[in-house]
Predict the 3D structure of the following.
Amino acid sequence: MNAKEYTREILRLIRQTSPGQEEFYQAATEVFESLVPLLEEEHRYREHSILERIILPERTIIFRVTWMDDSGKIQTNLGYRVQFNSALGPYKGGLRFHPTVTLGIVKFLGFEQIFKNALTNLQIGGGKGGSNFDPKGKSDSEIMRFCQAFMNELHRHIGHTRDVPAGDIGVGAREIGYLFGQYKLLTANFEGIVTGKGIGWGGSFGRKEATGYGSVYFAEHHLNRHDMELKGKRCAVSGAGNVAIYTIEKLHSMGATPITCSDSRGTIHHPKGIDVKTLKAIKEVGRESLEKYAQLHPDATYIPLHKYPEGGHATWSIPCDIAFPSATQNELTIVDAKNLVNNGCKLVNEGANMPTTPDAIDYLREHGVLFSPGKAANAGGVAVSQLEMAQNASMQRWSFAEVDTRLFGIMKSIFDTAYETSKEFGDEGNLIMGANIAGFRRAADAMIDMGAV
Ligand code: GLU
């Protein structure tokens, strides 16, 4: 069996043994396809059954979360923590609270996290968790009771050298506070068992901004390699959560113009540039719909979801130089890719995890659009999470400038690693292949050193 057939065979077995996990197969297929040139050259990964092992989570925890809503009714949700791979350090990855969360979604995210975390060159393994709990429309006390109930089970499985969760979609500073508080109550220990903590109680300066800022730094490094820069570019950004907000903020400071943002109900198009203050007030403070943005800025247009073109999204039909998909998985489709190409887009830089569908990626690359894969471009968040862990462990606190300087350097090093690796394997500039091989090689080499575990 050649390397290609071998990877296909493992993927086929995974489909058979864990049915119905489409996003997980999508993520695994992309990684395994990228690895073919490496497997052809280096036989030890096959000899040590690395693919057979890395595709299986070391541990999967699924639990019932029982909590009481404001009317006194008992509610139930499913909770997950997938501890995917600890070859490089404690499991590290966020928690997602969203109605679409299933085991397949958590596994796709946890699998991506292994390679993303390896790429940062820091000591962190890969994991992910979450719940199908829908925070939308819930009161603050319902959110608190849910987080407490979630931690009632999760606390037995995490620890600052074991597994360190953080935020993701639906889990921000507020939820991290409630989760940490309940852990402390249950264990009587004040430890860095989550990241994204409040600045006053163990959090790191710059963590909140890190994924968005890091994504913009990555885009700049990528453009520079091709003799371009962000300055003066029109940038379309999707999403209005933590990643999108700080992508938009950093784009302004780099002299670019972020012209869009979006939420689950619609897109805002503001040609003169999205006003970050208004966006933060609506999303971080008020937790309201983006419709309000257009009321406050009459020169901006609100395009409701139902006006999206067939199979595509309004955000990507607006002409831009650079696209920053920063909302969720599979949000940029083939229809969107065609629009972006027609409008002369030069770079798609993934702020979210796996936001571009495989056929859209192929189309973009075939048409000469540069592509920054999420597991490289959005690794700034988890990288600064590791800096938070380092500060907690040494009982130190670094300044915002110190963290931001390190983040800039980490993003440069991730870009260089992915780029150089793509060159090494004969497809210069293919950062998907470069990031997958570089991340895999680091985790896999550690697994080989540690024997058959
Ligand atoms: N959820 C983020 C990610 O997708 C951050 C994880 C973390 O900070 O641990 O990488």
User: Anything to note?
Assistant: The first strand starts at residue 59 and ends at 68. The CA atoms of residues 259 and 273 lie 5 Å apart.
